[in-house]
# Entry
Amino acid sequence: MNNIFAIGSITIKELYRRKDFYVLFVLSALITLMAGSAHFFHDDKIVRYLKELCLLLIWIAALVIAITTAARQLPAEREQRTIFPLLAKPVSRAQVLLGKFLGCWLAVGLALVMFYAFLGVVSASREHAWPLEYYIQALWLQWMMLAVVIALALLGSIVFAAPSSNGTICLVTVVGILLLGGHLHEVALERPEPMQSFLSTLYFLIPHLEWFDVRDLVVHESGLVAWWAVGAASVYAMVYAGFLLFAAWVLFRRKALN
Amino acid sequence: MDAILQIDGLRVEYGGPRPKVAVAGLNLSVRAGEVFGFLGPNGAGKTTTMNVLLGFVNATGGSARLFGVDVRQPIARQRIGYLPELTYYYKFLTAEELLYFYARIFKIPRSERQSRIDAVLKLVELDHARNRQIKTYSKGMQQRVGLAQALINNPDLLILDEPTSGLDPIGRMKVREIILRLKHEGKTVFFSSHELGEVETVCDRVAILHNGELKAEGRVDDLTREHQASLEQVFLKIIGYQPAPAA
# Structure
C-alpha cells in the first residue's frame, strides 16, 4: 500500500500544479455567479435553477477533470519516460496502476469537495438553508461514479496510444451511458431479434452510471436516497472499477514500455 | 567474491514475423565491490540487457538475477540504484520532493528520510537548488538529480546507463569522481559507456558486446596487455572495425 499511496500523492501534486483544474473551477464559478446575479422572470425560487445549473457544471467539470487526468497518466509516464526510473525501483506495474487510480480518484474527490462547497455557499446565500445531507449524498455518489470513469480512462490509456483519442472515446462512452443507459432495455424490447438480445446484453453489461445522478433530488429536495441504497451503489461502482482495473493490469503487465 | 549480478544464457528477441535477436545467449557475472564496464557499439544489446535487469523487458530465454533474486520480482530492485541515459523525472517536482517520493518507495524510515536526502543532495552538489522545480535545472543539474535518486536508498549495486552522456567536461569529471568515491565505499557499479578513456580509468573489468553476443570479457589491464593496445584499440579490434582507406 505504501507504494500505491506514494504514486497517488505524486498524481495529486501534479493536478494541483497544473492549470486545468483552476480554469474549470473559475469558469464554473463565473457562470454560476453570473446566472445567480440575474433575476429571471422575477421568480423567488430562482435558486432551484441556479442549483440545477451549478450541478450540471459540476458534473461536466468533474467528468472533464477525471477523464483528462486519468487518460494522460500512463501515456505521459511513457512519453516522458518517467516510468523507467519508477519501475527500476521495487515497484510492480500493478502498484503503478493502482497508484495512478488512487491519485486521480482522490484528486477528483478534492475537486468535488471544492465544487460542492461553492454550490453550498451560492445556494445558501439565496435560500438561507444548508441541506448538507443532500450535498453529501450527491457528492459521494458522484465520486463513486467517477471511480468507474477513471478506471475506464486508465484502461483506455493502455489500449489507445494518444490521450486525446482515449479521452474523446471515454467522454462519448460515459455521456452515452448517462443519457441512454437507462433506456437501453426499453429500446431493446421494441427491437426484433437478434438486436433485442444484443441490446439487452449490453444493458446488463454496462455500468449504469446514471444511477449515481441524484441532481434532481438535490434541486427539489424531494427526499434522500436510502443510505443502504447508497452503500449498494458504492459496492456496485467498486466492483466495476475493480473489473476495469483488472483488465487494465492484464494489458499493462505485458505492454512493451518503449 | 559473490556474484551479485548473474546473467545465464540470456536471450532477447523482439517480436514480428521475423524476430530480431537483440541479445543472444549472454553469460555474465558481476562480483560485489567491482566497477564493471559494459561496452559495445550502438545496437549491440547493452540497453536491452539493462532493460531486462531492471524488469522493463522480459527475456525470451535464459535468466538474470540480482542478489540471487530473479529480476522479474520487484524486490530484486530493492538494493539497486539506476541512472538512465537521459534524465526522466517529474519536472513539476522539486529535487527534494522527488527524492522524498523515491525514499518513500524504498520504505526508508521517516526519521531517516530527511538526513538521507540531505546527504545525497550534498554529494551531487545540488543542496542550493533543492527547492527549485526540476524543469528549471540545466542538463548537468538534471543528470545530478538522476544520480541523487539512484543513490537515495544507499544501494549496493548501481546500474548506470551512459552516465556522462551529453555532459560538459566538468560534469563528466564530477560523475567520474562520484563513481570512484562509490567504488572506494565498496559499492558495485555496472555501467555502459562510449567513453573508453573514462572506462579505462574507473573500471576493474569490462565486457564487450557486439550484435547481441559477448565478444570479450576480462580485467582492463589483462585485455590491454594481451592486445598490446589501449582499450579503445582493443574495442575497435574486437568489434571488427576496419578504418576507411585514406583517399
Summary: Strands of chain B lie at 3-14, 20-31, 35-39, 61-66, 69-70, 80-83, 157-161, 188-192, 205-210, 213-219. Chain B touches chain A at residues 51, 54-57, 74-78, 80, 82, 84, 86, 88-93, 97, 101-102, 104-107, 146, 149, 159 (CB under 8 Å). The radius of gyration of chain B is 19 Å. Residues 102 and 149 of chain B are 7 Å apart (CA to CA).
